[in-house]
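User: Please fill in residues for this 413-position structure.
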């Protein structure tokens, strides 16, 4: 097969040639946008799921839907070591710039930009970014109007964000549209920022203001939000993004191939689903390798068997290995214990399918390592912070990366 015509695209946040299995999420967001356009109350949206299920791709697609409806939009990626203040200011600046040409009162835009500039430049008096305070004070956003005073500049991120979002929503109302802020890796926001974001969304929902936040994060994102504000369980609409079912996975492979006049035998599709587990990133990785190795159409199960080692080698380096290398020896020991336990049923001792990515009790990990649970807390907490594992339920942990347990069991101790 001609590698130049290979239609598959395994990449971080890279949209696949066929966005299969996400029609429900796209339809739901269309309804959200239409309801807000008609002045109906609607909740902000949170997408959760493991790595490799296509959350970033879906987030970008939802943003395109908002842009097509002439909404203002901005996107940021949260980082554990960065305050929300600067990136959210940049995202709102982009959103309002999209709306400005349609606004009949330039003075209103300038007034908002003055508030935005004051918000961006205002440093919190204390907090995790204290060491960078002087640097942030020197930072100048690309806004030509002078900073306003007395609005969104208190230094308290919760007060300031509520005021800033309210003013931004008012600008959107002026032009009969809305603003959507998209936040990727949302679980990495600090506790104060999460609390402020919840408070701002709560205020907007009570006012019926046309500004929504669309977040994407790991499966424990709902727990992060709930820890910040108890009402967050009712504040957001949560959508779990999971692996593709068999029909959607086959479509993700076959639709792009058909456009290149290439077909798959049924047994090839069976084997590709078994190998990929239906995870979108893996579907693309195995599809790409299989295309490159297949001599002709139709693609057969034998072609998949020949190509699979190359796909697995690439995943081992780029998808699994890069994450494994970030862990310390103590953290790797912890994950290896998790991997061993996730392959065995706790009651029967029978080997189970590790692609289920089941949660593992932390007490069992400690028992397997012959350690006290408290002594393993530093390794556990560090792995959660690095985004390698998450705790969906109290007393359990699971890998954030599909098939990571299978990968770890192939690595030498």
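Assistant: Residues filled in for all 413 positions:
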């Amino acid at each position: 097969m001609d590698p130049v015509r290979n239609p598959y695209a395994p990449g971080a946040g890279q949209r696949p040639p066929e966005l299969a299995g996400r029609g429900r999420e796209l339809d739901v967001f269309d309804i959200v946008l239409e309801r807000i356009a008609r002045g109906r109350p609607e909740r902000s949206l949170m997408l959760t799921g493991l790595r490799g299920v296509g959350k970033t791709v879906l987030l970008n697609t939802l943003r395109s839907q908002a842009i097509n409806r002439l909404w203002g939009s901005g996107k940021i990626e949260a980082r554990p070591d960065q305050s929300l203040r600067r990136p959210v200011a940049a995202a709102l600046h982009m959103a309002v710039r999209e709306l400005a040409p349609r606004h009949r009162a330039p003075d209103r835009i300038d007034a908002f930009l003055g508030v935005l500039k004051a918000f961006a430049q205002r440093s919190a008096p204390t907090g995790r970014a204290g060491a960078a305070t002087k640097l942030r004070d020197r930072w100048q956003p690309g806004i030509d109007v002078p900073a306003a005073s007395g609005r969104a500049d208190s230094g308290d991120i919760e007060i300031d964000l509520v005021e800033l979002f309210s003013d931004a929503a008012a600008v959107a109302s002026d032009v009969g549209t809305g603003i959507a802020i998209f936040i990727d890796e949302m679980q990495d926001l600090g506790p104060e920022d999460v609390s402020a974001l919840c408070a701002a969304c709560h205020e907007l929902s009570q006012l019926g203001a046309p500004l929504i936040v669309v977040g994407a994060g790991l499966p424990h994102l709902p727990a992060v939000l709930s820890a910040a504000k108890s009402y967050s369980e009712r504040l957001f609409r949560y959508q779990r993004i999971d692996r593709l079912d068999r029909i959607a996975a086959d479509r993700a492979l076959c639709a792009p191939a058909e456009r290149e006049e290439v077909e798959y035998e049924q047994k090839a599709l069976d084997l590709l689903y078994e190998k990929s587990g239906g995870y979108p990133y893996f579907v693309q990785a195995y599809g790409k390798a299989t295309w490159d190795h297949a001599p002709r159409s139709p693609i057969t199960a034998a072609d998949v068997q020949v190509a699979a080692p190359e796909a697995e080698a690439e995943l081992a380096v780029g998808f699994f290995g890069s994450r494994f290398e970030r862990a310390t020896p103590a953290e790797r020991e912890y994950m290896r214990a998790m991997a061993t336990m996730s392959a065995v049923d706790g009651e029967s001792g029978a080997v189970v399918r590790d692609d289920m990515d089941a949660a593992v009790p932390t007490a069992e990990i400690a028992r397997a390592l012959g350690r006290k649970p408290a002594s393993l807390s530093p390794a556990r907490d560090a792995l959660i912070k690095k985004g390698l594992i998450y705790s969906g339920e109290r007393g359990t942990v699971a890998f954030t990366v599909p098939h990571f347990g299978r990968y770890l069991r192939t690595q030498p101790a």
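For context: Residues 12 and 56 are 8 Å apart (CA to CA).
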